[in-house]
Design brief:
By secondary structure, this protein is α+β, with helices and mostly antiparallel strands. It has helices at residues 2-11, 44-51, 84-94, 113-123; strands at 55-60, 65-70, 75-80, 99-104, 107-110, 126-130. A 6-stranded antiparallel β-sheet has the order 1-2-3-5-4-6, sandwiched between helices. A hairpin with a 4-residue loop joins strand 2 (65-70) and strand 3. Helix 1 packs across helix 3 (84-94). The protein is globular, with a radius of gyration of 13 Å.
Length: 134
């Protein structure tokens, strides 16, 4: 558990990943999903491709994977997780920093807030505002 906490503390300013055996999740029930009703699977390379860029993997850990992705429109940090519990723990840890994140099944995308809505149209997911500490 201390490894997870240490990894989360290190990564909250960054982002993370997912294993290669990820299965395709069910479409999101929220209105945040794109018109086709598709939500991107929890795999960095697939999410990056849908966002229009190629990911550079930065972190490979048991609890997460993280990749950076640079498109013409924006820079994205994509974090994927092998299970929802790791994603929720990462979001809890990231909460101290605040900010807006695009969140899907076992993945989180970080970017400038103005680019997240455009990413949501391609990837699905839900925009989640984290409060931060003052």
């Amino acid at each position: 558990m201390s490894t997870l906490v240490g990894s989360l503390a290190l990564v909250t300013a960054c982002g993370g990943g997912e294993d290669d055996t990820a299965r395709t999740p069910l479409p999101s029930k929220s209105s945040a999903a794109p018109a086709a009703g598709i939500v991107a699977p929890a795999r960095i390379e697939v999410i990056a491709g849908l966002a229009g860029c190629k990911a550079e993997i930065r972190i490979e850990a048991d609890e997460l994977r993280e990749g950076l992705c640079h498109s013409e429109q924006a820079d994205y940090r994509i974090t994927t997780f092998p299970a929802e519990k790791y994603k929720e723990a990462w979001l809890d840890a990231a909460g101290v920093y605040g900010g807006t994140y695009l969140v899907g099944p076992r993945w989180v995308v970080s970017a400038k807030a103005e680019h997240l809505e455009q990413a949501r149209n391609k990837l699905g997911g839900t925009l989640r505002q984290l409060k931060g500490t003052s």
